[in-house]
Amino acid sequence: AFVPISGWHGDNMLEPSNNMGWFKGWKIERKDGNAEGKTLIDALDAILPPSRPTEKPLRLPLQDVYKIGGIGTVPVGRVETGILKPGTVVVFAPANITTEVKSVEMHHEALVEAVPGDNVGFNVKNVSVKELRRGYVAGDSKASPPRGAADFTAQVIVLNHPGQISNGYTPVLDCHTAHIACKFAEIKEKVDRRSGKTTEENPKFIKSGDAAIVILVPSKPLCVESFQEFPPLGRFAVR
């Protein structure tokens, strides 16, 4: 929707303005019900909230782990997919540590359940702070739990790199909250950035502007998922 406004004078922000007689209002036609209005607040209210991937298995990358007196070990992170509830038996990949969630909190309030998008802290039983670290991923031990990857196949687009990248190159990958060096074990093929079609098999190197399918081997255990199943855990940046 197009809404002409003046933030300085408040025109069309909360109430229709008399200074814009030419503007007759905005309209949106969509499957989920049409919407119309004249002001910015109407347009914001008409935005449909995105559907959250609650039906998928739980994935929660850890941002930090705290030790809180009287409570114990509290990992913190954002729920990417699935639902986290007190009583859930979670597994932390790639370390494969299993424990029960005692409580889940967001902004110092206890939650019955945490859904995708929630930044939560959750208290776990019988696990020390030293056993967990940023970059681990929590999942439900009984429903498609996360696992570490020995290697994985990825599409890499080289946006800006001073030289050539060949087999054996080992940059640092930022994948969800993990920060781990990964080796380009094999550059399998160059592909067209737009169509995805193969342009060259087993190239000797790739450079700025190229896209390629590459087998990557993490230097330390890393939890990475297929982009089709878990997009937040299937994308990464190479630095």
TrEMBL record:
Gene Ontology CC: cytoplasm
UniProt-recorded Gene Ontology molecular function terms: GTP binding; translation elongation factor activity
SUPFAM superfamilies: EF-Tu/eEF-1alpha/eIF2-gamma C-terminal domain (SSF50465), P-loop containing nucleoside triphosphate hydrolases (SSF52540), Translation proteins (SSF50447)
Residue ranges annotated for the Translation elongation factor EFTu-like domain, each copy included: 72-137
PANTHER family: ELONGATION FACTOR 1 ALPHA, TR-TYPE G DOMAIN-CONTAINING PROTEIN
Coiled coil: none
Domain of life per record: Eukaryota
Family: Belongs to the TRAFAC class translation factor GTPase superfamily. Classic translation factor GTPase family. EF-Tu/EF-1A subfamily.
CDD domains: EF1_alpha_II, EF1_alpha_III
Subcellular location per the Swiss-Prot or TrEMBL entry: Cytoplasm
Gene3D superfamilies in UniProt: P-loop containing nucleotide triphosphate hydrolases, Translation factors
InterPro entries in the cross-refs: EFTu-like_2, GTP-eEF1A_C, P-loop_NTPase, Transl_B-barrel_sf, Transl_elong_EF1A/Init_IF2_C
Sorted UniProt keywords: Cytoplasm, Elongation factor, GTP-binding, Nucleotide-binding, Phosphoprotein, Protein biosynthesis
Function: This protein promotes the GTP-dependent binding of aminoacyl-tRNA to the A-site of ribosomes during protein biosynthesis.
Protein name (database record): Elongation factor 1 alpha
Positions of the GTP-eEF1A C-terminal domain: 152-239
Tagged with keyword Glycosyltransferase: no
